[in-house]
Each structure stands twice: as structure tokens, then as C-alpha cells.
Write a structure and sequence with these properties.
Radius of gyration: 16 Å
Number of domains: 1
Structural class: mainly alpha
Order of helices and strands: HHHHHH
Shape: flat
Oligomer: single chain
Number of strands: 0
Largest sheet: none
Number of helices: 6
Distance between the termini: 10 Å
Helix content: over 70%
């Protein structure tokens, strides 16, 4: 896998993770008392999520032109590791010991797939 493809995959993972965090933040703000509906759809975090989703999708399509799906798709699993870690740090969510074990297994699995 080329350096450019690795960077594209990294960007897909980071943007996807950031997008999920923005979506959760936007929905949490809405649950905190803001009226539901159009107002919540045009909030800054919601627009950030939409832009990251669009960018992630475009980068994913570009990446799949050069990287085999059997390598690229498992690397997306890093989002399942990064999202709990980032949500603990940025959204004050709790990560349980079982989740830590799961995160570790995901990282090892992605590392094994990346070597093949």
C-alpha cells in the first residue's frame, strides 16, 4: 500500500471519528433543552458532522480505487477503537474495562490486517 493510500485511509478514519463525535455532541445539545426540528439540523456541530460525512465518503471512494477492499475495510475498524477513546476524553463518557479489552483487540486485528 502506498504512502498516499495510507494517508487517505488515515484521513477517512479520523474524519469518520470526528464526524461521529460531532453528531453525538449535536444530539446531546438538542437533548439538553433546545427545541427539536430544523434548528438542531442547522447547528454548527450538525453541519460539521455533515461536512465530515461528505469528505469521508469522497475520500473513501478515492481510496478504494487503489487499495484492495480486503485491506481497506478492516482498517476502518479503527473507528471502533478511536470513538470510545475520543468520546471519553471529549464528551466525558465512561469507557469500561470490557471496552478497553475490545479496543485492544481491534487495534491488534487492524495491525495484523495491515501487515498482510
Amino acid at each position: 500500500m502506498s504512502w498516499a493510500a495510507c494517508m487517505q485511509l488515515a484521513a477517512v478514519v479520523v474524519l469518520g471519528t470526528a464526524g461521529q463525535l460531532m453528531l453525538k455532541y449535536a444530539l446531546r445539545q438538542n437533548a439538553a433543552g433546545q427545541p427539536a426540528g430544523l434548528r438542531s439540523l442547522i447547528s454548527v456541530p450538525m453541519l460539521g458532522w455533515l461536512l465530515s460525512y461528505i469528505a469521508t465518503t469522497i475520500l473513501w471512494l478515492v481510496t478504494l480505487r487503489t487499495v484492495p477492499l480486503s485491506q481497506a475495510f478492516p482498517i476502518l475498524g479503527l473507528q471502533f477503537a478511536l470513538i470510545p477513546l475520543a468520546s471519553a476524553k471529549l464528551l466525558d463518557e465512561r469507557v469500561t474495562s470490557t471496552q478497553w479489552v475490545g479496543v485492544s483487540i481491534i487495534v491488534v486485528g487492524v495491525a495484523l490486517v495491515g501487515q498482510s
